[in-house]
Backbone:
């Protein structure tokens, strides 16, 4: 199973489209995870044209995005329990907030955004992933997202551009 993992698109409208490389890599995915700061419903509608989308709200979302999306969710796919959370909060590092938000949930993977910094880390046997952002790189040198392969052996591919 091939999953696209994105976060922090920060698109207030579709006047500025998602990057072409992202569109090209979405063609054969089975599922898309969006870890918040979407900012416009049209982004989710666009993504849903490729595959089912699981999304959570971020601190930069408002209006319908806040009303219609959960703060966090757990998705079970191909034998993996995956927690999705944006990562915002008041204290500590983003990665720690994401980890702690699922500490009693028995998840295999925690996916989050917020920092715009790509990350792959393991903590207490849980894989922690941040895809960065395909549209707002902030202090990063490149834009990024993840292709996650949920097979017997888990594989994570960061797409940097």
Residues:
């Amino acid at each position: 199973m091939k999953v696209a993992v994105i976060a922090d698109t920060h698109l207030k409208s579709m006047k500025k489209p998602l990057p072409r490389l992202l569109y090209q890599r979405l063609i054969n995915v089975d599922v898309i995870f969006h870890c918040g700061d979407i900012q416009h419903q049209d982004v989710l509608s666009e993504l849903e044209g490729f595959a089912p989308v699981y999304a959570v709200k971020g601190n930069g979302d408002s209006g319908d995005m806040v009303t219609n999306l959960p703060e966090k969710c757990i998705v079970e796919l191909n034998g993996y329990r995956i927690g999705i959370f944006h990562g915002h909060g008041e204290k500590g590092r983003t990665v720690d907030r994401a980890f702690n938000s699922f500490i009693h949930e028995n998840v295999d993977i925690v996916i989050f955004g917020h920092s715009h910094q790509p990350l792959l880390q393991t903590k207490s046997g849980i894989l922690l992933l941040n895809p960065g952002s395909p549209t707002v790189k902030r202090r990063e040198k490149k834009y990024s997202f993840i292709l996650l392969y949920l097979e017997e052996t888990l594989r994570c591919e960061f797409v940097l551009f």
Notes: The first strand starts at residue 2 and ends at 6. The mean pLDDT is 96. DSSP finds four helices and ten strands in the chain. The domain at 2-160 is CATH 3.60.21.10 (Purple Acid Phosphatase; chain A, domain 2).
